[in-house]
Design a protein that fits this description.
This protein is α/β, with parallel strands linked by helices. It has 13 helices and nine strands.
């Protein structure tokens, strides 16, 4: 099933591997199995000596709407049974480490990939989608792209926080975190989150042009250059930030909600996933800043 949801294509002539999130009917919502499959396909491309550039993209209406909460929830103790026992901290931490932010997880696999990586973003780039795009070397976005992590409204920022601060500046990151407001493509461009914004109809062409230009470089130049970037990222603490992400996420998904606060866990138990999201939107839609 996961093999169908994450597509892999190799273009020998262009020295390019394309990894496509292929769950358009769910706005490319990411299950745990899909995260693991993305990791394995990035590793596959990295080991292929004929690959110089890896493009990550989404099919259908968007790049990715983020984590599929219905799938992710059980791993962190969300259950329709109010009597169900929550998973242990250790179980949750192991999943966060090996699947999302640890050295074996998707984010650091992309971040430290020896080949050049490009995120081709259109529509929603939310939650896990933002984390995947942020880990890439370059982000080329369509004019309709929107960037944020809805989870900031529940538990705060996660493993990508250090990388985002280096990229966007602490003020903009705090604004996105504390308000939960999505950045449109032009705002993302102005704060350095994306490299280029183009009309949706030109997105494929723009990515193709950049990938072709990168592929003109020698293989060793790309790989050794990426190694230097990786060293710089470690010096700046970006890798440590991602490593800390699996620990902080385990803790943050165990926070206590007061009676007057929105509790996604509780709302999902009583109203289902769709009803929980509707309640969330009701809470925030009164603000003129909310999107």
């Amino acid at each position: 099933m996961a093999d169908e949801l994450i597509l892999y294509e190799m273009n020998q002539e262009k020295k390019r591997a394309t990894i496509t999130i292929n769950r358009p009917e769910k706005l490319n919502g990411l299950t745990v199995a899909m995260w693991d499959d993305i990791t394995q396909k990035v590793i596959q491309a990295e080991k292929d000596d004929d690959v110089k550039v890896i493009v990550l993209k989404g099919s259908g209406r968007c790049f990715s709407s983020g984590h599929d909460v219905a799938d992710l929830g059980p791993h962190h103790g969300w259950s329709s049974d109010p009597k169900a026992r929550r998973p242990s901290q250790r179980r949750r931490m192991i999943i966060d480490d090996s699947t999302f932010w640890g050295r074996r997880g998707t984010c650091q696999t992309i971040l430290y990939c020896d080949k050049a990586t490009i995120a081709q973003v259109h529509g929603y780039c939310y939650g896990g989608g933002l984390q995947i795009a942020q880990a890439c070397d370059l982000i080329i976005a369509a004019e309709d792209a929107l960037f944020t992590h809805p989870g900031y409204r529940y538990i705060g920022p996660l493993g990508e926080i250090v990388s985002l601060i280096h990229t966007m500046g602490i003020r903009k990151v705090k604004e996105m975190m504390l308000t939960g407001k999505a950045l449109d493509a032009q705002e993302a461009l102005s704060c350095g989150l994306v490299n280029k914004v183009v009309p949706l109809a030109k997105l494929e062409e723009a990515v193709d042009e950049v990938a072709n230009l990168i592929a003109l470089q020698p293989r060793d130049a790309i790989v050794l250059g990426k190694a230097n970037f990786e060293l710089a990222l470690d010096i700046m603490g970006v890798g440590a930030g991602y490593t800390a992400g699996y620990i902080t996420h385990t803790l943050q998904t165990n926070i206590r909600y007061e009676d007057d606060e929105f509790n996604l866990f509780k709302e999902r138990q009583t109203k289902g996933m769709k009803g929980a999201f509707q309640e969330r939107e009701k809470r925030f839609k009164g603000s003129p800043l909310a999107k």
